[in-house]
Amino acid sequence: MRKLQQRGEGLDSFTFRDATENDIEELGVLHAETWAQTYNAPRPNYKLRQDQWRKAFAEENDGSWFCILVVGKNNKLVGFAKGKTHKNTDSNNRSGDLNKIYLLHDYQRIGLGKKLIGHVARRFLSMGVNEMGLFGTSQNPSCAFHDAMGGERLYSENGIFGGCYRWRDLQKLAAY
Q: Is 23 in a helix, a strand, or coil?
């Protein structure tokens, strides 16, 4: 929080909005940067991430996914989450995936992730989606965040946790 205050920012200075095609360039850079920070890896080619987002907007424009951006001071993107619905036939138990959720390191542990996951849950609920999963890796340092957000760890048949989670009640998350 001190870093935020030093930069003249506070939690109320952030907005959440849907990504559009106009965000592809900056979103691709943010995606590359946050992924590299999360996995302590060399920064991947941001052009690759931009191409992936370009493809998503062009080819997957069927309403089955959404991307919510966290926008900071001077309209700078500092985080995002992507949700994707499943095409299951049981209308009483629709599910979705929290496909991606990333925040720049300087914006973690201040409540933005909690707010972001709340936005995702509310969006899913508005789409008739009642539960959500996340398919990750156990090496992801964000596992502690997913645990804190009430994610149910999913284990393989031999009892190994591979980084996957499920939230059976999105109403709880929607309160954030």
A: helix
Say if residue 91's pLDDT is above 60: no
Q: How many Cα atoms within 13 Å fall on the side-chain side of residue 71?
A: 13
Query: How far apart (Å, rounded) are the C-alpha atoms in residues 69 and 104?
Result: 12
Measured between alpha carbons, how far is 95 from 38 in angstroms, rounded to an integer? 26
Task: Select from 149, 91, 96 the least CA-distant residue to 118.
Answer: 149
Q: Judge if pTM exceeds 0.85.
A: yes
Per-chain mean pLDDT for the chain = 92
- Amino acid 122: pLDDT: 98
Is pLDDT above 70 for 90? no
Rounded Cα distance between 24 and 57, Å, is: 9
Domain limits, the chain: 2-130
- CATH architecture of residue range(s) 2-130: 3-Layer(aba) Sandwich (3.40)
